Amino acid sequence: MYRSRPKGNLNKEMLNFLSSMNDDLQILHYDILGSEAHVIMLHEIGILTLHETKKILVALEQIRHKPALLTTGDVEDIHESIESLIIQQTGVDIGGKIQIGRSRNDQVILDIRMKVRDDINEICEKIITLITSLLKKADENIDTIMPMYTHLRQAQIGTFSHFTLSYADSLFRDLDRLYITYVRINQSPLGAGAIGGSRIKLDRQKTARLLGFKGIVRNSIDATSSRDTIIEYTMDLTIIMLTLSRMTEDFIIWSTDEFGYLDISDEYSSSSSAMPHKKNPDPLELLRAKAGTVSGNLFTMITIIKAIPSGYSRDLQEIKTSLWQASATTTQALKIMNYVVKSLIINKERMEQASSNSYAISFDLAELLAIKNGMSFRTAHKVMGLLVQKAISNNRQPLRRLREEDIREVLESLGSKLSAEEVLKDIKETAPQKSISSRQSLGSPNPMQEQNMVKLSRGRLSAYSKRIAKRKRLVDEALKNLTRMVSNCSKKA
Fold this sequence. Notes:
Elements: H1 12-18, H2 21-24, H3 28-44, H4 50-65, H5 78-90, H6 92-95, H7 104-140, E1 145-150, E2 153-159, H8 160-185, E3 187-188, H9 204-210, E4 215-216, H10 220-225, H11 228-254, E5 262-263, H12 282-305, H13 319-343, E6 345-346, H14 348-356, H15 362-373, H16 377-393, H17 404-413, H18 420-429, H19 432-437, H20 447-491
Parallel strand pairs: 3-4
Antiparallel strand pairs: 1-2, 5-6
Helix pairs in contact: 3-4, 3-7, 3-9, 3-20, 4-5, 4-20, 7-8, 7-13, 7-20, 8-11, 8-20, 11-12, 11-13, 12-13, 15-16, 16-17, 17-18
C-alpha cells in the first residue's frame, strides 16, 4: 500500500524479511488508541469532517474489538495492516486521510512509549509486592542469627533479617530508577511526522493529553529517531534482573545440604529424572540464567543503535523483539521470586549452630579488646588472628573452648600484658546474640535497628504505591475520556 515510487509489488521473500507483524501485535491496542486520538485532533482542527471522522473511528473500534479482522500477510507492519483495513471499509477518499500529519516513524515510537509506560507501572507494582514479602520475612527473622559472608567466607555474625533487608534496599533502588525513567518515557512524539513535522498546525498537546502523556517530545528529529529512553528502561530491567540473580545465588547456596540454612518449597522445586532423592532449585536456576537473557537484550539494542545516524532508520525496527522479551522476562522473574520468597522455610537452628561455632565472632572480639584495654585495633586484630589459628590447630574447636594456657601462649608471643583469664572471659561472654545487640553503628543488624528499617521501608512502600496508583489513574482517566469522545463522535449524525 505504501509503494508510490517503486514499481510493482515487493518481492515476497523481501516482504517477509521486512515485516515486523509478529512483534507489532504487542502494540496493536496502542496503535488504535493513538490513531483515534490523532483522528479526533484532525477533526477538531478542521482537517476531517464529522462524517469522515465517524467513519474512521467506527472502523478503528471494529478492529479494536475484533483484531482477527486484520491481515498479517502481505503487509510490512501493524500500521499498514490497520490503515489497509480502514481504507477497505471506508474507501480511500476517507480512510486514506488517517495518515494526514503523521508517519509510521512517529506512530511506532508513540506505540512503544505507551506500552513501556504500562509495563513500567506493572513492573513497579511487582517490585513493591516482592519488597513487601521480603519485609515480612525480615520482620519474622529479626532474631534469626546467621553468619554473614564476604568472599563466600564467614565474615561477621548477622541475621537473616539483615540479608532480606539488604535485598529490599537494592530493589528500592531498582524501583527508584524505573520511577524516574517513567517521567522521560511519558512524553508524546505523535505529530512529529517522518522527521520534520507538518505544514498543518497539528495540536500535538491535544493528542498528548488524550493519550495521558505529561507533555511532548518537542524536536521532531529527536521525537522520531531517539531511543535513549528505551535503552534506559532496558538498562533498568537489566539491573533488576542482576538483583534477582544475586538473590537466587544466595538461596541456591543456602539451600544445599552443606549449608542447610533454608529450604525452598516443594511447589517451587523440581525433581531429578534419575536420582530419586533430589530436589532441585530449577526455577531459581532458570531465573539466574534469564538475567543473562535480559542483559543480552540490552546489549543487542545498544549494538543496533550505536551507529545509526540522526533521523529514522529501519534498523530501529529490530529493537522491538529484544524490548518485548526484556519486559516480559523481568515481569515473570519478579513474580517467580515473590513466590519463592513467600514460601521459604528458614532453618533457624542450623543457622544458629553455624553462628555459634563460627570464627566470625573474631571481629567483635577484636573491637572489644581494643576498646576495653585501650590498645590499637591492629594489635587486637593480631591477637584474635593468632587465637583463631590456635583454635583451628586444635581440631577446629570454637574460640570459647580455648584453654587459658593457649591464650596465654599467644599473648606472650606478642609481648602483650593482657590477662589470659580476662580474654577468655570476654570470649565466652561474647555470644552471637550479644554480639549483634551490642552493635551501635547505623544500619547494623542490631534488632532495634532492624525493626526501625522494616518500619521505614514499609512507609516508603506505601508512598510509592500511592504515587504509582496515581500515575495509572491519570492514564486510565485520559484513555476513558478518549473512549467517550470516540463513542460520542461515532454516534453523531
